[in-house]
Amino acid sequence: MRNVAVLGATGSIGTSALDVIARHPQRFRASVLTAHRASEALAVLCERFVPDLAIIADTALEADLRARLQRAGLATRVASGEAALAEAASSSLCDTVVAAIVGAAGLASTLAAARAGKRLLLANKEAIVMAGPLLLAALRAGGGELLPIDSEHNALFQALPGAAATRAESLQANGVHRLILTASGGPFRGRRRADLGAITPEQAVAHPNWRMGRKISVDSATLMNKGLEVIEAHFLFDAAPDCIEVVVHPQSIVHSLVEYADGSVLAQLGNPDMRTALAYGLAWPERIDAGVKRLDLVALAQLDFQAPDLDTFRCLGLAYAALHRGGTAPTVLNAANEVAVAAFLDGQLPFLAISEIIEACLDAIPAEPVENLTQLIQTDLTARATAQRMMRRLHC
Ligand code: NAD
Ligand code: MG
């Protein structure tokens, strides 16, 4: 029986993880559930899954959550705050952690799970973009295992030989030439910059293939999501930036591909449903039912592939630039993007200005070699403050 902590249980990934867990009660138990502010939704999940511990990140809502669980007659313990998340992720309450908090807010708990040697199902891509070298060091020290949940990296993990998938051996030693990440192209695929001046948050979050949280939906619309994923692939598989390619594939059926020296290309396909990756990560190395609709190739009939439009979607090029620059540049990229996307969702920043703010931050803050967590947290704060300043200068 695996005891699973679902961090970010009320979100899109959290909901999918709990769906898979509920399908296999003899294999998995949700022992820790967490949310940011959605105490009512968290209480409903607690009634259904009866975890040992429920954590609400916003401490002001701890009393509210406790009252709800008491009214429901549950013995589930209640805690709050970021430190409680990290403590739970490394505690004996769980052996498996689904890291599904969005943004840098998930970094501390993701690192704690890695350090404690848990099986880490990593959805929180911002954590590895922000602190890749530290997360890898924590994993080595903890001796646990990382299963990528991002569908592209889950596909690569499946298409790579085991030793290369887990970084035990290099890609070169396994005859790998290229990692090819697929991108849906988002809701604005085919549009030019001139068409994107007046995009609203509601248009940007309307993704054609996936139902996701608002932040990652905007990232998909700007192609920053793919940029973050290029950096994620670099750290996960020790892949040189030039070996990671992006191809637009509007149907989101081929989740990514590995090209080998002999010309073979191995891909993982499936319907766009995150429960496949979550079931894979939870049961690995076994395969279990994920509740996902079977792929009907004849009904699909056609799969399309195109080059990404880097002129219109500048964020992808900025992510490659940050990766080439190395050191703390990805930390700056991530923080500036989080600030700009939040401002866009808040109606404070035009869609096209998101890439301008990120570029200005990358230019303003020199990259330094990554040393420790304190340094990265400071870099993240500096980049956030710089992004706020740039937004005031450029657009207010
Ligand atoms: P979401 O917005 O639907 O859910 C986020 C969850 O995190 C919620 O439970 C929320 O309560 C919690 N949370 C938000 N801010 C928090 C904070 N400051 N402190 C503590 N908890 C907080 O997001 P999502 O779409 O489920 O994405 C989660 C992560 O998974 C992101 O990093 C995203 O990039 C990644 N991911 C998502 C998908 C997808 O299909 N949704 C696919 C690949 C990767
Ligand atoms: Mg993805």
Give a description of the structure.
By secondary structure, the chain is of the alpha/beta class. It has 3 domains: 2-149, NAD(P)-binding Rossmann-like Domain (Rossmann fold); 151-273 and 295-311, no CATH class; 326-396, Orthogonal Bundle (Rna Polymerase Sigma Factor, Chain: A). It has 17 helices and 11 strands. The chain has helices spanning 12-23, 39-49, 62-71, 82-89, 107-115, 125-142, 151-159, 162-165, 201-204, 214-222, 224-237, 275-283, 297-300, 314-325, 329-345, 353-364, 373-395; strands at residues 2-7, 28-35, 53-56, 77-80, 96-99, 119-122, 145-148, 176-183, 244-248, 254-260, 265-269. The strands form 2 sheets. It has a 7-stranded parallel β-sheet, with helices on both faces. A 4-stranded mixed β-sheet has the order 9-8-10-11, covered by helices on one side. Strand 2 (28-35), helix 2 (39-49) and strand 3 form a beta-alpha-beta unit. Helix 4 runs parallel beside helix 5 (107-115), helix 14 (314-325) runs antiparallel to helix 15 (329-345) and helix 15 (329-345) packs across helix 17. The longest helix is centred in the last third of the chain and has 23 residues, at 373-395. It is globular. The model has no long low-confidence stretch (mean pLDDT 97). The site of nicotinamide-adenine-dinucleotide (NAD) has 25 residues, from helix 1 and helix 6.
